[in-house]
Amino acid sequence: MKKVSLKDIAEITGVSTSTVSFILNGKASEMRISEALKKKVLATANKLGYQPNQIAVSLRTGQTKILGLLVEDISNNFFALLAKTIEDEAEKFGYRVVYCSTENDNKKGQALLRMLAQRQVDGFLITPTLGMETDIIKLQLQHKPVVLMDRYFPEVDVPHVLVNNYGGVTSAMQHLIQQGYERIAFITVDLALNQMQEREDAYNDALSKSSTQKTKSKKNILSIDPTASREEKKKLIARFLKNNKPDAVFFATNYLGILGLECLREQKIRIPEELAVVCFDDHDIFRLYIPDISVVQQPVEEMGRRAVHLLMDQLGKNRGAATKNQLRLDATFVPRESTQKI
Amino acid sequence: MKKVSLKDIAEITGVSTSTVSFILNGKASEMRISEALKKKVLATANKLGYQPNQIAVSLRTGQTKILGLLVEDISNNFFALLAKTIEDEAEKFGYRVVYCSTENDNKKGQALLRMLAQRQVDGFLITPTLGMETDIIKLQLQHKPVVLMDRYFPEVDVPHVLVNNYGGVTSAMQHLIQQGYERIAFITVDLALNQMQEREDAYNDALSKSSTQKTKSKKNILSIDPTASREEKKKLIARFLKNNKPDAVFFATNYLGILGLECLREQKIRIPEELAVVCFDDHDIFRLYIPDISVVQQPVEEMGRRAVHLLMDQLGKNRGAATKNQLRLDATFVPRESTQKI
DNA sequence: CTGAAAGCGCTTACAG
DNA sequence: CTGAAAGCGCTTACAG
């Protein structure tokens, strides 16, 4: 069973490849090809199980109908859900998606961008790593459609869709303050990503503005070196909790939350009786598995859908679409179950 | 900034495209091209930022260097980790991977296989859905390299790599029986997948063989209709637990485990004091988040690596490789933390 | 109504 | 040592 080509069908039916091509692409009536011929060609194409070679089509038309998606780590829930949403949404517009993981490594990210460009993807969806700025600019210079997600470069004018981290943390902090917590700690990662900065700012601002807190407690931040080992990080968190004895703690990332919970377990600190915990939750992990902690939910799915739309705008496939191409979506604070029920 | 092609470089340096192609593909010395010319061509290619158009290369060479990976749901941890492992392993052989989710829907699976074939992927890695059998056979007839993972069709001779589910459940059961549990329940999904059947068989056999259990308890199985809603499933589990009052329960899938834990929480049944829980764990989720339950760990990463190797064998890229092309890997039983420590 | 021909950007025998 | 030419499998003006 060899691959069957347009030419094969043309030979068998005794017409030219052009005619076959027109018929198979639904342009029979447009080209005023006779019904009889059309039926005959369609029938033999069907019988032989003809599948067009998309490689050839792409080379000829200059379109691959493929979108390149660059995420940090596809095995991470946040990015996996993002990828899936994007895949589904892109499909509605007739596009396929190939995903790649940068592992937060710039060299790898650049290599992947190059690879995607070589494969002639029609557009790029990217959660950029630090320092990927110039690569993004290069893509724009080549007139490649690009949309940034989750992170962005304030100085560069690229369509993007972000999360309102500031708002999410603010709601959570207001809730904690209102509930009477007086020693709220904030554990974050020492990374110069703008979304991390935003989260910290929101924490600081919430405390500054709170009249009850203002007098009683001061800011209580642990900023952890991301290059430290897992065990080192845990040690830092454990020591911090022991020294500062907070009555509530805010973990600024999902991963820190996991580490933190391990520490709390080892120290036999009970949640939420002895310590209230709030964590950024990428994919309802905490909500599903540990209902005793409160979460700030990321609008992952909406982010994915919007990003695809912004890309389609650039590809000219989304008629009557968004006027704004730089979006910021809300993150939702969800108090722990027990709180909700009381 | 237009895309630069081989021809551009040929024109600028004043040689033919053939010469440029040879030089750029490292065949300069083989073709005995002068050093000076080689340097000149390389320099201008570099200056212009030349990137070969892989679409054209693929069309010409008949190789895309892309592998198609078909999984059930990429946003599921098990498949996400599998995909990532495969991606990393394939890269070592110079291959890229495109993933697709079947959502356990045959129609969609077939459409995706067709799409991958049209895109001319060089090989297929598949976790097959029920009834995908004929499609797999078709691929083999077209001499497309295929490897099946996690599931297989006993009647069809296709390279595959599976998990020894029977062994994993057996170890877990032996452990429970040895620890003195007397009313061990088994909650599974009513799906005719061979790996589910294996798990249930192992449960039954373990009980039959156990001398202590033989007299005291009989088999206690709840088999849930997979098409039921989440809430219905939870109700079934809750009723089953209430009626049967097991002292240990074995959830045959990760998802059932999550539902079960929700039920236990709602009924305020304490783990492991009032009920021991064992669950199949796809991706260390339970181990990380809930140390009080025991798990049967799937060898996801090894499965991915082995699958790539089996595919490379077929592509002729893995010299001196496996003689066996149907593998079965062990699943590991990991008792809950507290058990380990005592 | 239908066909011959060019061309997408490469690689690779073949010829000199 | 290097170039002219064919061809991978399509699409699409162009001609009749």
TrEMBL record, chains A, B:
Keywords: DNA-binding, Transcription, Transcription regulation. Gene3D superfamilies: 3.40.50.2300, lambda repressor-like DNA-binding domains. SMART domains: HTH_LACI. Residues 4-61 form the HTH lacI-type domain. It comes from the Bacteria. Pfam families: LacI, Peripla_BP_3. InterPro entries: HTH_LacI (IPR000843), LacI/GalR-like_sensor (IPR046335), Lambda_DNA-bd_dom_sf (IPR010982), Peripla_BP_I (IPR028082). One of its GO terms (molecular function) is transcription cis-regulatory region binding. PANTHER family: HTH-TYPE TRANSCRIPTIONAL REGULATOR GALS (PTHR30146:SF109), LACI-RELATED TRANSCRIPTIONAL REPRESSOR (PTHR30146). This is LacI family transcriptional regulator. It comes from Pseudobacter ginsenosidimutans. The lineage of its organism: Bacteria, Pseudomonadati, Bacteroidota, Chitinophagia, Chitinophagales.
